[in-house]
């Protein structure tokens, strides 16, 4: 009965190619392909079709299946690195992009995990989308866009803090976030930058 209903729904509302690709992804888990680029760790290769589909489905369609797949990458990465007492800091969106998109794609993934999350970074101005810019433009575009909530950050003493973004291309966003947070870090705190994919 479910298959008939799904076929009928697919006929009435044809699914996106990326959505179709993810329907089987939870049955066959995506393996992590970890690495490090410019001092930033990543969990997977963006050229992997399932990863690419999951990131786009999450970012532009708030797809819960995509969020679960990406959350499993984070959990696998944490296990592989044997990290304990972690707390995630999602890269914040500007108010306009948050309103247009309806969600922060990084926070949506983190909400599918059991890890604590603290939004101690705030974006103080809107920026152009990074995807359309070259490296120099990205660096200029992202300069001084974050501020830190010192009160919230002070409560994270002794933790391993992980700043998380969805995709790293040049590293400009995560490096700017790291530069903003570093002078404010409480004692005995480790700071790591992580992207879901590169």
Task: Please write out the topology.
Blueprint: H1 2-12, H2 17-22, E1 35-37, E2 40-44, H3 49-61, H4 64-81, E3 86-90, H5 95-101, H6 105-110, E4 121-123, H7 135-142, E5 146-148, H8 150-154, E6 160-167, H9 172-181, E7 190-197
Quote the average pLDDT.
Answer: 91
The percentage helix is 40-55%
State the domain count. 1
Number of helices: 9
Major sheet description: 5 strands, mixed
Strand runs, count: 7
- The appropriate CATH architecture is 3-Layer(aba) Sandwich
Shape category: globular
Which radius of gyration do the C-alpha atoms yield?
18 Å
Q: Note poorly predicted spans.
A: none
- CATH top level? Alpha Beta
The quaternary organization reads as: single chain
Order of helices and strands: HHEEHHEHHEHEHEHE
* CATH fold name: Rossmann fold
Summarize the structure.
With 198 residues, the chain is of the alpha/beta class. The chain contains 9 helices and 7 strands; from the N terminus they run H-H-E-E-H-H-E-H-H-E-H-E-H-E-H-E.
Notes on the structure:
42% of the residues lie in helices and 18% in strands. It is of the alpha/beta class. The chain has a 5-stranded mixed beta sheet. It has a two-stranded antiparallel sheet with strand order 4-5. Helix 3 (49-61) packs across helix 4.
Q: What keywords describe this structure?
A:
Rossmann fold; alpha/beta; 9 helices; two-stranded antiparallel ribbon; globular; 198 residues; 5-stranded mixed beta sheet
């Amino acid at each position: 009965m479910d298959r008939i209903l799904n076929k009928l729904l697919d006929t009435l509302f044809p699914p996106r190619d990326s959505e179709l690709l993810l329907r089987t992804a939870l049955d066959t888990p995506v393996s992590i392909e970890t690495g490090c680029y410019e001092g930033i760790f990543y969990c997977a290769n963006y050229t992997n079709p399932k990863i690419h589909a999951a990131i786009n489905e999450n970012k532009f369609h708030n797809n819960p299946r995509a969020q679960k797949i990406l959350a499993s990458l984070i959990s696998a990465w944490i296990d592989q690195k044997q990290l304990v007492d972690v707390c995630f800091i999602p890269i914040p969106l500007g108010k306009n992009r948050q309103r247009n998109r309806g969600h922060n794609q990084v926070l949506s993934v983190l909400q599918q995990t059991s890890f604590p999350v603290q939004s101690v970074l705030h974006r103080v101005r809107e920026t152009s989308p990074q995807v359309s810019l070259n490296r120099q433009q990205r660096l200029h575009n992202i300069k001084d866009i974050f501020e830190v909530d010192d009160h919230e950050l002070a409560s994270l003493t002794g933790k391993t803090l992980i700043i998380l973004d969805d995709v790293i291309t040049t590293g400009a966003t995560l490096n700017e976030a790291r530069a903003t947070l570093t002078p404010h870090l409480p004692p005995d705190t480790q700071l790591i930058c992580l992207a879901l994919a590169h």
